[in-house]
Specification:
Blueprint (H helix, E strand, L loop, with lengths): L1 H42 L5 H5 L3 H8 L3 H58 L3 E12 L6 E10 L5 E13 L13 H4 L2 E2 L4 E8 L6 E4 L7 E4 L6 E11 L6 E10 L2 E4 L7 E2 L1
Antiparallel strand pairs: 1-2, 2-5, 3-4, 3-8, 6-7, 8-9, 9-10, 9-11
Helix pairs in contact: 1-4
Length: about 280
């Protein structure tokens, strides 16, 4: 990046030094070409009879004594000078076109560098929300209607605050994760939607729907613990999706999905359900 900025600066400095010379040189060559054309058109060997009659007597006498060879030679010299001037005009035009192309290339490089800097700034200065550390199943027994739940945490590891725009979650049983729903209004991520940098909210939880049967597992090495009761190829999924924005950026998403394996939840490695944008 520093190299490209240095190259762009060098090109701009070079163009600033050369640009004042282009138009004066172009004007000089054009003036010489036009002046030479007018001069030879009036006083050259191809002068018309009308102009010839208005020449001074001494000039008329000199013209009368010219031979055909002399006139041809003068015409050749005139044509040669005209070709030289025209060639110079072509060279100046080509040089002008070259510097215009250089200027256009420099402008494109500057725009690309500016766009890259903006993109890098957005990546560095945006918030990054992570959903992690799912635990469960837990039983809430100190209530008239006991229920099971899963806990997790959300942290902002970015450099700027994150404003949560939408929050969805679902605990489901099936071959793939079920449809997401909107948690209760009093959920902490909805009730307090702004997370500052390095803030971590622990012990967030989701209740297991009553339609999902929860049993108990125990063996000689494991104390009794709740586990989902699954049939056939069914799987137990926990899926959470957060949509948020930062002070300078927007349209960010973090999606986390976990599947029950054995006696705990593990990350479900599927880009459709586990990703960060």
């Amino acid at each position: 990046m520093l190299l490209r900025e240095h190259q762009s600066k060098s090109l701009r400095v070079e163009l600033m030094h050369l640009r004042p010379l282009i138009w004066p040189l172009f004007t000089l060559v054009m003036g010489i070409a036009l002046g030479g054309s007018l001069f030879w058109g009036v006083f050259g060997p191809v002068a018309t009879d009308k102009n010839f009659g208005r020449l001074a007597p001494s000039v008329q006498e000199a013209q009368l004594h010219r031979t055909k060879e002399e006139n041809d030679e003068a015409l050749v010299r005139y044509t040669l000078w005209l070709a030289v001037l025209t060639g110079g005009l072509v060279l100046v035009s080509a040089g002008q076109g070259f510097f215009l192309l250089r200027a256009d290339k420099t402008a494109r490089m500057t725009a690309e560098a500016s766009q890259a800097q903006t993109h890098n700034f957005s990546k560095l200065e945006r918030p990054y929300l992570y959903i992690s550390n799912p635990k469960g199943l837990e039983l809430e027994a100190h209530t008239p209607d006991p229920y099971h739940y899963v806990t997790y945490q959300v942290a902002n590891y970015g450099k700027t605050p994150a404003t949560i725009k939408e929050f969805f979650a679902a605990i489901s049983v099936g071959k793939v994760p079920g449809d997401l729903g909107v948690p209760q209004r009093w959920h902490p991520l909805r009730h307090l939607p702004i997370m500052i940098p390095n803030e971590t909210r622990s012990d967030l939880w989701l209740a297991v729907p009553e339609s999902i049967a929860i049993g108990e597992f125990a063996d000689e090495d494991t104390p009794p613990m709740p586990v989902p009761e699954l049939a056939g190829d069914e799987e137990f999924y926990v899926h959470i999706l957060i949509k948020y924005r930062g002070p300078f950026t927007s349209d960010h998403e973090t999606s986390g999905c976990w599947r029950w394996e054995g006696t705990s939840l593990v990350s479900f490695d599927d880009d459709r359900f586990t990703y960060m944008r």
